[in-house]
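Posting this for the archive.
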Amino acid sequence: MTAPAHPPAPGGPRLRARTVFAAAHVVADPLADTTPDGPPALDWDATLAFRHHLWSHGLGVAEAMDTAQRGMGLDWGTAAELIRRSAAEARAVGGLLACGAGTDQLPLHGVTLTDVRAAYEEQLGLIEGAGARPVLMASRQLAAAATGPEDYLELYGHLLRQASGPVILHWLGPMFDPALDGYWGSADPDTATETFLRIVHAHPGKVDGVKVSLLDAGREVRLRRRLPGTVRCYTGDDFHYPELIAGDDHGFSHALLGIFDPLAPLAAAAVRHLDTPGPEGATAFRAALDPTVALSRHLFRAPTRYYKTGVVLLAWLAGHQTHFTMVGGLQSARSLPHLRRVHELADGLGLFPDPERAAARMRTLIALHGADPTRRDTPI
């Protein structure tokens, strides 16, 4: 096991103007004797220390979500343990926590809607029992088993009726997971939106908010304007988050974002500008956060589902972990030129507490690939 890069810190003052969650990555155990398709092994100390880092800046933690490699190396058994441990840590510091509930304990194919419902119920029960807010994640198994919108209406209605408190509904687009194409019963996004809104409007008291990860700012704005007044819109748009969080005359989005994992200190400071009412606060917010979009767009470029590799690289370069190893070997999912550009963009934003350490680690990675890290004309 590696020692925590940062000791647990008391949770900082929560952000007031917006509710903001950072979807947190997991730290693999680099010394575990496992394989890419074997059971995942986590460095629990470093993984939980990173949650304390997020809480110390006043951010909420979105646990066991896509950023934590759900469905890409992290199995349900390990995710369940992650949820239990993070919930205990959140209680200790008063940290805000929401946890992903899905159906990934099931095989990808050959399951029924009854199987899907039981899987969701198992995960919901564990999360609620741990005292966390559930995020009903989109289900690959439901996408494969459903025959149309009515199956989604019936299943989500059942889950919302039996949930003990409000949940967050998550619409994850196929750019993040191709197996979710046609979710809500239609490949047409307008038709899918109508089904999604029918579910929300039928159960407004059981929906804290909706997380929209479609990378389509216009669609998100149109959707949030049609939500019941008590239901939040949490942007999951890692391309357009500054404008969506800033909002317009008709409203704004809260946030549940993977990009806020590496951006935590900068993002929290930016959102605090919104505590100042009027154009002054909004201008300062945009001035702080707009420059981060180039990094986010690079991290999340197609194939978008591999953005986690850049996120973990940044955690290593920033000193939150002592290695660049991922569950399932996904540290190899992005090219060296891509990763070098991640470092350059992040360094330009001042994201590294120790820029020299970050540069030295990047040189080590470049040399490991057989390139000369001192030459700018190298092919990478």
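The radius of gyration is 20 Å. The longest helix spans residues 76-93.
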